[in-house]
Amino acid sequence: MNEPGKRPDAGKRHDAIDVGDFVYAATGARVRRLTLPGGAHWFPAVDVCKELGYANSRKALSDHVPEEHRDNLETVTGSYGLSIPPGRGWRRDLQLIDLQGLILLVNGCTKPACEPFKQWCAEVIETVQRDGSYTLEEAEVQPSAPGAPIAYAMPEQIADAIVRLEERNIQADEQLAVARQESLALQRTTVDLQHTAVDLQTNMMEMQRTLVEMQREALAAQQAVALAMERIANRLDALALDRPAPAATVPVNPTTESVLADWRQRLSVTSDVWAVAVAIVPVLVETGELRQPLESIAARTGLSVHRVNDSLRMLRKHACIHSRGASEDGAPIYVLNRP
Q1: 309-325 confidence digits (pLDDT tens)
Q2: Is residue 170 part of a domain?
Q3: pLDDT at 339
Q4: What is the per-residue burial (b if ≥16 Cβ within 10 Å, else e) of 229-266?
Q5: Could you tell me if residue 161 is inside a domain?
Q6: Fewer CB within 10 A of the terminal residue: the chain, N end or C end?
Q7: What is the pLDDT of residue 202?
Q8: Which of 154, 182, 216 is the endpoint of a domain?
Q9: Range of the domain at 275
């Protein structure tokens, strides 16, 4: 730091303390900086206020920073004929503060990390008041290049603040690394769970397909059993109906009326069976046999082929008629049971 009344040449101006370290010690953070050709440093007010804990940057500037230590970006750069720095964060109307404005904001804040810097500022003022000047101690190791500026030792308060902040940053980095490792582990676990879920879904789909196949096989087996039972029943009916009819069941020369009367006494005649009986008895009495397709009988009675077949089965079961095979065209042949 220069003694009062001494002003360095602008062309040779340099910072006795690195401005980055100085601001870091003052605010506890790395803040964006705009350094002009003359060596002056300007900082976005919103960045400084955020790091120092001010909720309202406009009010903070009004309360702590005089107008001569703040300006907008366009005016500051325009005084040197500079263009606006690239990037969305640098707007023409962005409010900037100079280094003195930054120090004023630091002195007005209550952030604990700024206390060492405030104590050093108080020490500087006390020393100037007492001795008339404040001089930084020269560093033990000086630059060897010809014309190089003198290197000064960093004040103890600022150095301690930087060390504490760096330690805090190291701890934060370590915590961040641990958090990232935990996040990666969680992501791997999530991926494993997703793979397990996919495997479970695949197994469930296989089980469902197997169940469907088992159901199909069970249905086919049930159908086969039903068909076999129907064939057995038909065979039993045929065996029972092929036995000779009791004597005097039907007169030697039966008539349509006598046959129908005999059948009515022999079995409980339903409407379907009676309709079939009325349709086939005249043919049986007249020709001695019935050679008509079931469809023909169904058409004459108005019944379905299935109901006609059931009715004929009932008549065979009660020994009213019996089967003699089938004709050349496939029509079943039935004859009356005679004594």
Answers
A1: 888 888 888 888 888 88
A2: no
A3: 55
A4: eeeeeeeebeeebeeebeeebbeeebeeeebbebbeee
A5: no
A6: C
A7: 87
A8: 154
A9: 256-336
Query: Do 150 and 277 have their domain in common?
Result: no
Ramachandran category for residue 187: left, alpha or beta (phi over 0 → left; psi -120 to 50 → alpha): alpha
Judged by phi (left if over 0) then psi (alpha if -120 to 50, else beta), residue 189 lies in alpha
Query: What does R_g of the chain's alpha carbons equal in angstroms?
Result: 57
pLDDT tier, 172 (very low <50, low <70, confident <90, very high otherwise): low
Domain boundary among 137, 154, 171: 154
Tokens representing 156 are 């103890």
Question: Does residue 168 surpass a pLDDT of 70?
Answer: no
Residue 56 domain flag: yes
pLDDT, tens digit, for every residue of 34-56? 999 888 999 999 999 999 999 99
Q: How many domains are there within the chain?
A: 2
pTM: 0.43
CATH number at residue 330: 1.10.10.10
pLDDT, tens digit (0-9, with 9 covering 90-100), for 192-226: 888 888 888 888 898 889 889 898 888 888 888 87
